[in-house]
Write a structure and sequence with these properties.
The protein is built from 10 helices and 9 strands. It is of the alpha/beta class. The strands form 2 sheets. Strands 5-6-7-3-8-9 form a 6-stranded mixed sheet, sandwiched between helices. It starts with 10 loop residues before the first helix and ends in an 8-residue tail after the last helix. 33% of the residues are buried.
């Protein structure tokens, strides 16, 4: 492999970078977002209820442009999934504003694909019928649904498995079906919540490469897809994304926002890329930033 170059930029540099994306209006904006969840506990002896507040997000400000692959990385409780749910229209911010394509996210949004850590396949449906599900909600005819589902299952390497049910598939195969289902309706925004976390290392690398191959192949013109990818794994974030946002918990906030300048397409070189000096330097730098931020943080949320 030839020499790779790496570049990391501060959060301010990312938003000011003189690229084609930076000159356009962002597809996604979080502006002064604060999210508070009220937790109810047992009643006290005097009959009053015991409630406290959990600050899931605090002062989150970030812009994401169309076509970017952005990874949100951090420990449990830092608000990564909450941010995805806000974009999906499932959660409204307590304070601040979330803007998606010029408006507040609302349900339903047929231009969003949402994939979870667990496959969430319907056990009474075959692989093909699971992939057809989002197409049914969009009103596709039966023949068109079936053809599209077969195409997508072949795309993720499951040709010949169309009639098998969840219990007949390995965990890796189930995630392939879930990926095919997420991509079937050709959404322009992909929300991915630790989609490969439950897999063994070998299967995980295979599916990472498979997904990246599909995404990189669809990066021209109107087919360009935006990806918001949640993970606990800093190495996975650097390996896949063009930009990594490191988040800290209690309350959830952004510690670092960096551009990852590694070569694309990467799908065919993931196994080699993770052992290069450039990859190791970027990952180590982000890890040090994460550790330093944790060590220097102040008190968390107040009850």
């Amino acid at each position: 492999m030839g020499t790779l170059t790496s570049r990391t930029e501060s959060r301010a540099d990312v938003q000011a970078a003189p690229s084609a994306a930076a000159t356009a209006s962002p597809l996604i904006s979080f502006r002064g977002v604060r999210q508070v969840f009220r937790l109810s506990g047992r009643g006290s002896e005097d009959g009053s209820s015991d409630s406290r507040e959990l600050v899931a997000l605090q002062d989150v400000n970030v812009d994401i442009h169309a076509g970017q692959f952005v990874a949100l990385v951090g420990a449990s409780g830092c608000g990564k999934t909450t941010m995805l749910n806000m974009l999906a229209g499932l959660v409204e911010p307590t304070h601040g504003e979330v803007v998606l394509d010029g408006r507040s996210p609302r349900l339903p949004n047929m231009d969003i694909g949402y994939m979870f850590a667990r496959d969430a396949l319907l056990p009474w449906r075959s692989a093909r019928r699971n992939v057809e599900l989002p197409l049914e909600t969009r009103g596709w005819g039966r023949g068109r649904r079936q053809e599209r589902a077969r195409e997508m299952l072949e795309l993720v390497g499951l040709k010949g498995r169309e009639s098998q049910y969840r219990l007949q598939l390995s965990q890796g195969m189930r995630q392939r079906v879930a990926l095919a289902r997420t991509l079937a309706s050709d959404p322009s925004l992909l929300l991915m919540d630790e989609p490969f976390a439950a897999l063994d290392a070998r299967t995980k690398l295979t599916l990472q490469a498979e997904f990246l191959r599909i995404w990189e192949h669809n990066q021209d013109g109107d087919r360009r897809k935006t990806v918001i990818f949640v993970t606990h794994d800093l190495q996975e974030a650097v390996l896949l994304a063009d930009r990594v946002i490191v988040m800290l918990p209690h309350p959830g906030r952004i510690a670092e926002d960096r551009v990852i300048d590694l070569p694309r397409p990467r799908a065919e070189i993931l196994g080699e890329l993770q052992f290069t000096e450039e990859f190791q330097n970027i990952t180590h730098g982000l890890f040090e930033r994460l550790e330093g931020a944790i060590g220097g943080r102040g008190p968390g949320t107040a009850n």
